[in-house]
Amino acid sequence: MIRLASPVWLVLIAVALGLATLWLLRRRFQRYPFPDVAKAAGRTGRIPERTVAAGVLAALALAPLAVALARPQEVLSKHLEHAEGVDLVIALDISRSMSALDFQPTDRLGVAKEVIGRFLDRRTDDRFALVVFAGAAVTLCPLTLDHEVARHLLDGVEMGSLPDGTAIGLGLGTAVARLRHSQAESKVIILVTDGSNNTGQLDPVNAAELAAELGITVHTVLVGRDGPVPVPVLERDPRTGRVVRQIRQMEMEINPELLAEIARLTGGSSFLARDSEALDRVFSSIDALERTEFTSTKLVRYRERFEPWAAAALIALLAAAAIEGLLGRTPW
Q: Which of 101-114 are b and which e, b meaning 16 or more Cβ less than 10 Å from the residue's Cβ?
């Protein structure tokens, strides 16, 4: 990457073009009206052309000189000394209900993973942790700045690795534990679920109160809708004994009031996403809410690149002087 330290000097390029034009016009009207006078002066037909070339070359030498004075510089390196972001935990529901097919082109969990992945890609200065929960809760990824690792672990999330159920309290409590010793000024949990708390030893409201005491903001995202939704189930064919995948309409229980209360207790926001586009908008809104201002120090090194331009200007001036001195033999 090249930059100009003093671009104001580029105005000399216009001056060079103007001088070259004036020199051409001057030579055009500076003729000998009488051939005998030209002969007495010892001039041939080609000498004036050469002296014109010398003047134009001298004028145009200002152009590379202008670039040299503007000081082109090559940017060698940039180093970020300090940046301060957000410590953020994603608490993701992986219970069986997240396999519902009302979020096309895939199920609720697949769409949630895609949207969360894009969200992580936008948060380049934040530390992330990933907690998954169903009937129990585990930490898949502790707080880290290695976004590639976090994204890889997120992509590998699957249903069926935990006991079935929706332990929202345990999921939230585990996420709070990830942030208990965080020194960041901004600590955030994004709780993504599609159901109502129906198992677990920790009450979700108690977990929210603990988060509030630790200065942790919780944003809740309710995905899907209640009522009958298509859910794939595995059933054994009584005739063949083979396990086949069937789509069944199943009633889904949701509790938006609980999620709204969790967000209210911690100063966060509660969102409802009924399709993939709405879920994408929800995470874009959270992205805008959780922007932390930080100061950074950048160390930038440059390498001067004016030498070739200065050399070009010098060569042009020497060439003009040589042409005029050796071939011109007339006053300028």
A: ebbeeebbbbbbbb
